[in-house]
Amino acid sequence: MQNKESKGSKTWIWVAVAVVIVIAGAAWWWKGRGGEGAADGPAGAASAASGAGGSGRPAGGRFGRSGPQPVTVAAVQKRDMAVVVDAIGSIASANTAVVHAKVSGELKAIYFHEGQPVKAGQVLALIDPKPYEIARDQAQGTLARDQAQLENARADLARYKDLVAKEAAPRQQLDTQQALVRQLEATLLSDQAAVDNAKLQLSYTRVTAPIAGQAGLKQADLGNNITPGDANGLLTIAQIQPAAVVFAVPDARLPRIRQQLGDKQALPVQAWDRERRTKLAEGRVASTDNAIDATTGTIKVKALFDNKDGGLFPNQFVNVRLQLDTLKGVLVVPTAAVQRGSQGIYIYVVADGQVALRKVQTLATDGDFTAVQGDLKEGDQVVTDGADRLRDGGKAEVIKVPAAGASGPGGRGRGRGAGAGAASAASGAGGNATAASTSASAADGERPRWADRVPPEMVEKLKAMSPEDRRTWIQQHRASAPSQ
Questions:
Q1: pLDDT digits 0-9 by tens, 161-179
Q2: 152 with 185, same domain?
């Protein structure tokens, strides 16, 4: 009985194993059928079309390309390069004078115009002079009285001398008269000083400009009683010709500045507006401070500008460009071409479609250009945009930027931005045509080449976009492309 039960259990086990094997085989067969169907479905057809179409272009990702990467380039130049230090500063007047009244009194007249230039010694205001005229007259009267007494004393002294010589008068009387004469002479000197002081006080009633410059706003009105102790004075005069600017530079630049000043060589300085678009004035360094600021590691430098047109005002904010030196005959590349990474500072050079990485050292930077030293020569084509998708030994295709992308007046670096947009759009779309030919094809109603690399539902939307919006959209979606 037990043998029968054991045989029945083994039979069920084998049946279960067979069922599992059948189910697994059916699942494998169904999966194979589904894969073929997927390949034969819309996705497979789209993949095949992508592989076979596109005028023989290699297949890639949605925005990627396996061929040469589009880049913009610029030629290496050999020329002189200015070594410039950028700083910020504020305009200060060469001299500033607060005009105070030197005597007290009622303000009777104002002779200056607010905000207008004044000359040194020009009469600016009049304080009531009557009290000071009276004081002058009194001093002159006292002087006249004492002068008359002195003349009488001198006449008596002459008579006493004659009497003493004839022994008709005592010697003591002569000595007394001589002392009286000397006393009256001293009194006369004191009276003359009082007259001079009265005249000086009277002259102070006419307030004059101590320096030439631009008058500020008046601080007192007609009829006010003004005194020498007034905190704000009568007005402020600022000497703005020349004008000065004080700015700070790193202390590492101090030896060169001191050397130039010691050799009596001019250090040119330019003042630019807040947006760095307009050059306001050109001047030169006049002096430096006598100590380095230990907190910031900088030293203050003072530069002077002629300011003949009066365009610079005290406390005006300016961007300062100090030229320390000029590098003669150095290699100059666009600043956008200089890359920094784990291998240091380098530049990509394109020659016959081949990319080469060249390590360099930067010497100086002036705006959009940088002087470099390394394995470069004049005329080499360096990559200014698209370098993020390149590698040493890879391939690249030069994208010619339309002339409209060139830098215009007042737009520093605009040419570089236009080139960057063109290369990015071409790289994201995977097209081999230049930005100019792409725009022309779209204008002529032809299908642009980038349309082969974007989803079909986006083609019409991208066509309806402006070139700038289209470029922005492509740049936002280019991250999914494999790098070269």
A1: 888 888 877 888 888 988 9
A2: yes
Single pTM value for the model: 0.54
Q: Are 130 and 199 in the same domain?
A: yes
Instruction: Please tell me whether residue 203 adopts helix, strand or coil conformation.
Output: helix
Query: b or e along 412-446 (b: 16 or more beta carbons within 10 Å of the residue's beta carbon)?
Result: eeebbebbbbbbbbbbbbbbbbbbbbbbebbeeee
Looking at the DSSP bridge assignments, the partners of residue 73 are: 383
Domains contained in the chain, number: 3
Mean of per-residue pLDDT scores for the chain: 76
| Percent of residues in the chain assigned helix, strand, coil, to nearest 5 | 40, 30, 30
251 vs 458, residue with greater confidence: 251
| Structural domain includes residue 121 | yes
Which tokens go with 367?
Answer: 């705006």
User: Which residue, 174, 178, 180, 144, is CA-closest to 161?
Assistant: 174
Read off φ and ψ for residue 299, nearest 5 degrees.
-130, 145
DSSP 401: P
Q: What residues are paired with 149 via a beta bridge? A: none
Domain that holds residue 192: 108-209+218-226
Structure tokens at 30: 């169904």
Q: Are residues 250 and 222 in the same domain?
A: no
What's 230's DSSP letter? -
Confidence band of 483 (pLDDT split at 50, 70, 90): very low
What pairing do the DSSP bridges indicate for beta strands 298-305 and 344-351?
unpaired
Is the CB of residue 448 less than 8 Å from the CB of residue 442? yes
In a domain, 483, yes or no: no
For residue 247, tell me if it sits in a domain.
yes
Q: Residues 201, 242: one domain?
A: no
Residue 7 included in any domain:
yes
pLDDT at 168: 78
Which DSSP state fits 291? S
**305 in the same domain as 255:** yes
pLDDT at 66: 52
pLDDT above 60: residue 418 = no
Q: What is the pLDDT of residue 330?
A: 85
Contacts of 420 (CB under 8 A, 6+ apart): 72, 336, 384, 385
Domain harbouring 314, CATH code: 2.40.30.170
> CA nearest 298: which of 84, 82, 85?
85
Side by side, which strands form the sheet with 123-127?
206-208, 123-127, 105-110, 225-226
Structure tokens at 393: 């030994």
Which comes out higher in pLDDT, residue 356 or 422? 356
Cα dihedral 355, 359, 365, 369 in deg (nearest 10):
-20
In the predicted model, is pLDDT for residue 112 greater than 70? Answer: yes
Averaged pLDDT, 10-24: 70
Do 266 and 198 lie in one domain? The reply is no
Within this chain, do residues 192 and 149 fall inside the same structural domain, yes or no?
yes
Among 271, 297, 325, the domain-final residue is 325
